[in-house]
Amino acid sequence: MTAVPLPFIAPMLASPGTLPPAAQDERWAYETKQDGQRVMVYLPGDGSVLLRARSGEDITAAYPELRPLGGALGTTPVVLDGEVLALDDRGRADFQLLQSRMGLAHAPARAARRAAQVPVHLVLFDVPYLEESLVRLPYVQRRARLEELGPAGPYWSTPRAVTGHGAEALAATREHGLEGLVCKRLDSVYEPGVRSRAWIKIRNMRAEDVIVGGWLPGKGRLSGLPGAVLVGQRDTAGRLRYVGGVGTGWSEAERRELARLLGDAASSRCPFDPAPRVPDARWVRPRWVGEVNYSTRTRAGLLRQPSWLRLRPDLTPEESAADLPEGFG
């Protein structure tokens, strides 16, 4: 078998947004948003496989269990777009698990050992090249070509896309605890390296109350103001457990008001139990409750991608509700 030279194709990116208007629903396809590492898969038709990260870096050696994909499609030269996932015991993508597999492209022996412990699964959702460039074809035709190709195996698959029914699809991702939804216009061409409005990503966010126990000084234009607040939640034993730092979500006026409140509550004692290792932390008495958005939690109970929503002066720390993971604390 002879390798066919393949063009470098940067992945097309989705823009954050909301569901398309109901009147346009049938013009869009809906795919589950995956919580993994984006990859472009190059199969030159000689049995080999090359995986490139979104940056263009060759990460093939990090995922040895995906090597058989090189021969799965025979001699057909193809470039596939997809995402590498690590699945938890419920079959859901777990980015924290995946982190133990990432960064091992230059350590193949370690990658092989980790593959035996935490195998990955590659989901494929586009084909910008199949014997020739398909980037000018509309999504609906590329998707049909991908499904005709039928890449499926022990460590890779092509999840179904749904046309129309966007509201129902989004509700289903929330019901099953999935990261979100990607909406793709049926007539959209593939735009390499472009963050396009023809693809819209919707991340399911959760909102919870947290207790402010500290802060980090801001830098640059935020000098003299809090750059982030350190927050916690009560566990079943009543201890204030650290759940992360929140550095976004305020207007300048809100940040200044927050600086005043934090100054009034300054303390030399860390209120979290156990005390987190956070360099340059400033501690405060835990008297203020806030509401934050976040996507998911890590296995240690920390909030991922938290953003400040509002201060809750109507709640005392004793009244704030928490949704700590089972066994936390």
UniProtKB/TrEMBL annotation:
This is DNA ligase (ATP). Gene3D superfamilies: 3.30.1490.70, DNA ligase/mRNA capping enzyme, Nucleic acid-binding proteins. Keywords: Ligase. It is an enzyme of class 6 (ligase). Residues 113-235 form the ATP-dependent DNA ligase family profile domain. GO terms for molecular function: ATP binding; DNA ligase (ATP) activity. Belongs to the ATP-dependent DNA ligase family. The keyword Ligase applies. It catalyses: ATP + (deoxyribonucleotide)n-3'-hydroxyl + 5'-phospho-(deoxyribonucleotide)m = (deoxyribonucleotide)n+m + AMP + diphosphate. Its EC number is 6.5.1.1. It comes from Streptomyces filipinensis. GO terms for biological process: DNA recombination; DNA repair.
